[in-house]
Amino acid sequence: MAGIRWPAKTASLCYNLEVILGRYNLAILLFCFASLQVGRSQGNIASYNAGSEPPCNQAKRGSMIVVLGAAGNPDALEVCLRDGAGRYNWAPASMQNRNTFAHSRTIGGCPIFPDNNVWNSTVDKLPISPESAGIVKTYAASRLGIVPEFPINLADSKAPAGPVQFDASGESDQGRYPIAGNMKMEGSSRESPVSGAPYKSDSHLLVIQTEQCKLYEIFALQNGAPPFHGAAGAIYDLMANNLRPNGWTSADAAGLPIWPGVLTYAELYGGGEIRHMIRFTLEHSRNSYVWPARHFASRNGDVALPPMGSRWRVKASLDEGVCHQGENNGKPYPPEMKRLIHALKRYGMILADNGTGIRMTTDVDPRWAEPRTGFNAEYILQGWTHCLTGRDFEVVDASLLMVNWDSAETVGQ
């Protein structure tokens, strides 16, 4: 607090509190800063009713206001702060978001979770799971592939939003889901509109509300106009490391978000590194789950099958230069396949649902081209992913990354 000219009485009191409680105690700093504001405004910090606060921006950074509580509720002291994602918000003085977002991917101005979130964690240094050999043997001959499957929608506060009735209401997040008829969803074509009901697929709908940085995911949306009905729904704060309650499903069988694990055309064919684990599916899984998964979707207890949340990586010894099996045997890898192999060694994949083969999930960027249209990007990449089979992977023990069973925060990331 050196260099700040405080009102005389405040300065004396702050000094005494510093001596007693410690120089940088947060409560002291907040008290003294509030007193400084009082000194500047002749005894008043501006107060506002909830919902009528002024904009929080660069010009107001560090300013304080009092948000008046309704009857029976206390007033709240709030500060205009910038978080690690560069967004300005009024925050309760003791509840600043301390997460960092220096390395997180962004979409619509929102990060895909904090830097230390499990989706952004590396696995190249983790030990091999004791169950790895048995699991890999089960899928040793299965070829790696991709499935362009999920579109993402961006919405702001002007987008229509409302409640959704869920079949799994006891394991679904209630709230106002942004849904519009022209939003794209998983369907019979790669970008089926919400208004195109009835649907012929799992009809997942994924939406990011860009002003709140929240991800809304619905499984099995059943109608194209309100009142909406779905099988299950989940809402995720992309600025936080929250997991769903233990035992809860989501729009995915493992109780995890879908979009953070989707491999996009842009990152695969772009110039940078793929910096997240990739969602994948298998034909059969075990009737259990491991962190960070929250749910399973099997009745089979065979330990030669992987649990939901199982984390796989490509073996470090795999040649990243030349394909050694499949239709491209003996050919050098193109840049996009080298980029993918590097990501699978460093960040790995996570088992999120039951499906076919060993299939990684991608977005539905039109550059993949529609299926069954000949030598499109999807067809060409499938030829290269067939260079890898289950025997090229190993299952790792990701529990060493865990800070808390109920948090997606990781250690040392």
What are the defining features of this structure?
413 residues, alpha/beta, 2 domains, six-stranded mixed β-sheet, four-stranded mixed β-sheet, 6 helices, 15% helix, globular, disordered N terminus
Briefly characterize the structure.
This protein is of the alpha/beta class and 413 residues long. It contains six helices and 22 strands.
Describe the protein:
The chain is an alpha/beta fold and 413 residues long. It folds into two domains: 8-92, no CATH class; 120-401, no CATH class. It is 15% helix and 22% strand. It has helices at 8-21, 26-40, 132-138, 265-269, 335-346, 377-385, and strands spanning 47-49, 64-68, 76-82, 88-92, 106-107, 110-111, 144-150, 153-155, 161-162, 164-166, 177-178, 184-185, 192-193, 205-209, 214-219, 228-230, 232-237, 278-282, 311-314, 349-354, 358-363, 393-396. The longest helix is centred in the first third of the chain and has 15 residues, at 26-40. Mean pLDDT is 89; it is low at 1-43.
